[in-house]
Target: D-lactaldehyde dehydrogenase
Amino acid sequence: GKVLVTGANGFIAAWVVRELLDEGFSVRGAVRSASKCAHLRETFASYGDKFELIVVPDITQEGAFDKAVEGVDAIEHVASPFHLHADDPDELIRPAIHGTLGILQSALKHKTSVKRVIITSSCAAILQIEPEPKTFSEFDWNEQSVQEVTEKGRDAAQMSKYRASKVLAEKAAWDFMEKHKSEVEWDLVVLNPPFVFGPTIHHTPTPDSLNASARQFYTMLTEESTPAIRHSGSCWVDVRDLGRAHVLALRRPEAGGERIIVSAGAFVWQDWLDAAPKSMSLQRGVPGSSKDTIHQIRYDATKSFEVLGIGAYRSMEETARDTVADWKARGWEW
Ligand code: NDP
Model:
């Protein structure tokens, strides 16, 4: 079968493309401009005509994906803005919602052969700041960020603007499915990852060109930081495990209609400093000082094991080792 992957030149999507190709699928990658094609063509050259690209210049335009969805059996919608420098929250919210709805509308309009749509949402659409530590599940929705953005607009925290875009886009997708349930011939799977780390295969010539999460990982391991920052954290998943989850979400019939958290566990940055290869001159902090951490936020990843059939997630040691090796192979100095 053929699978459309949007935002194919991004950190996560590039791994989704590779995992799909390795599993024997044909892939059509959608990118915003022709300039994003060369590196991808080179990366996936060995797969021959199993990999093709299409340019979709503006995902917020009506009918933007009409051509892209033609003749595909499934869609992995990964493209969405993830940065923390939006003034107007609509810089994030509009492409997040309209990209999601647009692709569903294009698939519906053309009565394509699409059997399944998978959307990369986020734990940002799940977590809330609670007074006590909490383990969140797929039943939880982040109402806080949307409320903050509604009340404060441009003055909302940057992270809240991004989180609101993910909540609203995911809700729009589920609402679309409900509204069109008698017409659609596919089912929807939503994946909700926390922070995503790991080596990159998309175009990242310099550390500055890394996407938001990989960039933060690089900064935290290579630059001095305060004890307070080293003892702050979140939850995480390796980008390769997330890429594989996108294939499992396509393959497993029982995933249809499900919202699924894809998380390897909780961390504070000191844990990564402890897990990083000892041979590297990285920041070290105070080794072992995080062992009694009480994590404010955790996720119940049971569904990812039971429904997706993920056997085990990569460990921090493996992710840290491979990520640092990747920086080294690129000749990055720190
Ligand atoms: P990247 O920034 O590497 O990739 C984002 C992709 O989306 C790029 O292809 C980018 O295209 C595209 N994109 C961004 N804004 C627009 C827009 N306005 N119109 C069209 N395309 C756009 O980030 P990630 O790979 O990390 O993110 C991919 C997805 O994963 C996103 O949906 C994100 O919300 C989600 N996610 C990421 C997490 C993480 O920790 N990294 C955690 C949880 C979810 P271009 O290169 O042209 O800008």
Observations:
- The first strand starts at residue 2 and ends at 6.
- The CA atoms of residues 139 and 258 lie 11 Å apart.
